[in-house]
Amino acid sequence: MLRTLSLAMLALLPLPALAETPAQTPEEKGLEIAREADARGEGFGDFQAGMRMVLISKRGDTSERELRVMTLEGTGETEGDKSLTIFDTPRDVRGTALLTWSYKTQDDDQWLYLPALRRVKTIASRNQSGSFMGSEFAFEDMRAQEVEKYTYKYLRDEACGELTCFVFERYPTDKYSGYTRQVVWMDQAEYRVQKIEYFDRKKSHLKTLTMSGYQQYKDKFWRPDEMEMVNHQTGKSTKLYWTDYRYDTGLTESDFDQNALKRLR
Amino acid sequence: MTHRFLLALTGIALASTASAWEFRGETGVEGRYFTDGPGTAGYWHNGSVYAKAELFHEWNDRDDQFVFIPFARQDEHDENRTHADIRELSWIHVADGWESRVGVSKVFWGVTEGRHLVDIINQTDLVEQIDQEEKLGQPMINVSTVRDWGILDVFILPGFRERTFPGEDGRPSLAVPVDTDDPIYESGAEQKRVDAAIRWQFWMGDWQFGLSHFSGTTREPLLALNTFQLSQAQLGAFAVTGQLPAGYKPRFIPVYEVIDQSGLEAQYVSGGWLWKLEVISRSGQGDRFTALDGGLEYTQVGIFESDLDLGWIVEYLWEDRDELLASPFEHDVLLGNRLTFNDIASTEVLWGVVWDPETEERAWSLETSRRIGDRFKVSLESRIYSNTGEPPTVEQIVGASLQEIPPETPLSIYGQEDNIQLEVVYYF
Which of A219, B21, B121, B346 has the fewest beta carbons closer than 10 A? Predict the structure, then answer.
């Protein structure tokens, strides 16, 4: 009797979970995936890395830029990450730097430092759909992807290479975004973005981003070595090669204020 | 002993590679062509070369930095434009929440594009470019602190830099050139006067503010005609005949008075809009006056379904200064566009016009640039003055000065100075 009961209980146990699944809408599941991915990225503290950017024209001509990126994880309720991007080449823009303070639910603050004039210029946040350094990446593609900046909708599971991916859509909440939607392929093993398709304001397929060469740092955080953005409408593309990832480099808030911008070299 | 010495040497060598010295620089060749003719300087075109180096070192885990930036230019015609300057030679030290800067340095204040009214720490290197964007190095002790309530900067400025002006053979060629050899100072300490300044920047939501005050020798001298060299008899003869006395060379003498200038910067960010305002109030040069430059900047991203970004700049310039001392931009409108191509060569076009609705004078400017390869940049610039009328003659300038008549069209002195400039810069 006792045995039968416990068996029955065992049989009952998965039921609530099963009952929940049908009740979860595709929107809820999409958000859940995004939250899980975000949670897995939390706690990195700070990192610095180098970046080589290769711009490829329609005819196949290439041009390179070298940048340094510093990021400090946001800790507050509303504050997102702070990041600093410094250009080393081409040489005429050497020392130019972009400082971003991202927020979860409001427009980011951005400043551009022009070293020749020693001038810090504020960038209007609405210009985020503009090209980053003449590349196929827009400013909004480069910034911290806070969960709150999109709404979500789970589509399906799909094989992606040797992995299985969640495929979901996300819709920018910001009315100034250059996109109406993005389709994201994220692997189920480690919640890493493998591919994103971007759809412009006319709802046509504009760009595709693929990330590859994922490596794990601090036994926890996965970062791609390579990112490629292809613009299907212009035939141009941009490749980003990340190098020299370093965590716990001792960055503090004071490395991300206006005085820090003026000290950069 | 020898071993220990060698070990120490190795240690020093290792330490110096760990905190390496960095060297970089740029050099440029420039050609100008004056489309309205040879002017009073007597030439149509001018060539010039410059070099600027940058030596940089950081140590103590980036808490200490050393910067040295020497600059030199050789000009074909203008001996005043052939000059050298230490743009920066400073030691920067960062402590917890504090930062100090000791030595020759460069500081920029302000938010607007038309005039940089609030920007007062560094003297303008006017021979470089008439747009006043180039600055001379300023000796300073600057302490800065970043707090929750904003950024506070205090400056002690020992040592005054005189503004550079084009020489007799320089262009823009003025009928009466500026004699920079013997300026007049209000302060008995002349160039050795120690000036001081303070600035507080703070943020409130989408607003950014800057409040500043400067007390010291003006960076913007008044230009006094040297008619004080003439006797009463000579002045009388001039009034009757309109002929300048024989042997008299009219020259403008810079007069550097001690001023107090308070400045306000405000900027409001809203979506794609940047609203900007700079206001100053200055005393010490004639009556106290107020000047402002306010307007907006708006950028359209991806115009005509292309990669091009088009920025719009509209500003209103105003001042209530005594007419005799007023700048040419006392009630003017600036309209400009910045076109960014977002291409591999970073092609950019910036054009603007400052228009005086009362006098109808217009000052046009065009600046375009693009990169060639990884190490070269080519820029084409042009400045054109229209509706200014003919430039005044020497006699007219002397006459107006003696009778204290303000010029009707202040930009007319540049009436024959329209020019285009091509520059190629190499970065190393």
Answer: A219
